[in-house]
Every structure is written in structure tokens, then in C-alpha cells.
Amino acid sequence: MAIPDSELILNKDGSIYHLNLLPDHISDTIITVGDPDRVPSVSQHFDSIETVIQKREFVTHVGYYRGKRLTVISTGMGTDNIDILLNELDALVNIDFVTREPRSLEERINLRIIRVGTSGALQADIPVGSHLVTEHAVGLDSLMQFYPLVETGLEVEVAREIQQSLQLDYRPYCVRGSDLLREQLGAGMIAGNTLTCPGFYGPQGRVLRLDLRLPTLIQQFQQFRHQSAEGEFRLTNFEMETAGYYALGRMLGHEVVSLNAIVANRASGEFATNSEAVINDLIAKTLARV
Fold first, then answer.
1. What is the pLDDT of residues 116-165, one digit of tens each?
2. Phi, psi dihedrals of residue 199, rounded to the nearest 5°
3. Can you name the CATH fold of 1-109?
4. CA distance 147 to 55
5. Does domain 115-290 have CATH number 1.20.59.10?
């Protein structure tokens, strides 16, 4: 059944609405960064660049690295942008733009999406300057209030306990990322569980001129523990996108992993003086392993 114009919005040149991309513009392996200015920090390592496209905060470079075709694209901040990104990337490979019909199950393409971003540590034993690969992501945002995400028993338990701990009116969501990509790309990195917050200040416990509704928010994040047969679950770091990636990736059938450059530690109050070096090291490591 054809998808209406109001749902699948295409530009005059036939490209997808926000990303401004055509199906031929992307590869099956996609590296994402939050900051548009960081896209060249990735593509500068490419042997050649074939495509450069920009619309709003979405900057895309497509090229070759050691003979492999790669896409790097910026997303901006927040899971609202990840909602746009994941849905439009999936549409590029799994919807026929001529007939406007989804491809059959046998024809569907599974993308490999690798988030390379900055993050703040919640625990004192995760040093500034380290790299962390996310096993589970917990979303405090409301994105999954609008999608039929199916969670495992452990994921439901963790989300419910965090809801009770923070006295939230809604249940957060918890999602495990790609085991395949985590094993391929995360060797030697700290494995952790990332908290995705719907903001940088209050939702991450920062106080400038506004007080917090939960004055002990950071301490509650740090002290959270869930015991299960799989071991102890704790929150290791936080940022603003990973849970959206993992949830949408699961529902759409794509392999997704989040790699985090730890540039701050909220337990010790540290911030990296060489934050760009920390993220650039992670970019180089990711490209070598892809």
C-alpha cells in the first residue's frame, strides 16, 4: 500500500525531506556524530569523498576508507532528532520512492549504524579520557510513548525501578544495543549502561539559576543498582541520544551501537581539557575497526 505524501515527504529532487538524501547517497555502514562540525573530523580520514550534502543540522559526507564505502552524518542533539534520522535512513533503503511502498521482508536492508559521541561519566571509576561502549541504554525521554517497543524482562524491570526511584509519572524505557557491533568495535573499551536524558541541564542534574525538582538526582543515578541473574546493572554514563538509537534500531531491524568518548566525570567534577583529542582518538579507533 502506497504511503501518502503527507507521511513520506520528499523534496522536489526526490530526496527525503530532512536529510535531503537520495537512496544512492548512503552506504550500508553509517557513522553518526552529533556536531555538524565533527563530520569533517571523520571524513578527513577517507581516501576519497564522493558526496557532500547539508540541510539544517544534518551534514552528510560519503566516501571510501581503505576501500570500504562509508557514510558519516551529523544528527544534532536529542532523541527528537534521532527519530528523524532513523526513520529517514530506514526509508532510504526500505521504501521504494517511486511506488512509495515498503519493500518486502525478503528485500529489506539492515543498516549498521555507529554513534560516535561525547558523554559524561556518572561513576568515579570511569575516568575522563576513556572510551565506553553502551550495552543497554535507558531513555528518560518520552519518544517511546509513541511507539510499540517490545522490551525484555530485564529491560522492563530496570525501567520500572528507575521510574519508582525518580518518582516519574511515566515509565522510562531500556534497550540493549547490537551485540554484534559491540563485540566488533568495543574491544578494550569500558562496557556500560548509558542513561539518555531529555536535556543537558536539569535532566542531567545541573544547576545554574533554576533549582531541581529532585535535588539528589545525580546521586540517585549514581546509586541505582538492579540485581538479576545476569549480574549487577548500574548506570555508568549519560548523554542525550543513545536510547532513541537503540529503540528505533530494534524496531526497524538495524544493527546499532553507541561509542562514547568520556569527556566529563560528574562524580569527581572533572572535565577533559583535551576533549577534542579524546573524541578524535575514538574516531580513529572506530574507523580502524569498521
1. 999 999 999 999 999 999 999 999 999 999 999 999 999 999 999 999 99
2. 170, 165
3. Rossmann fold (3.40.50)
4. 27
5. no
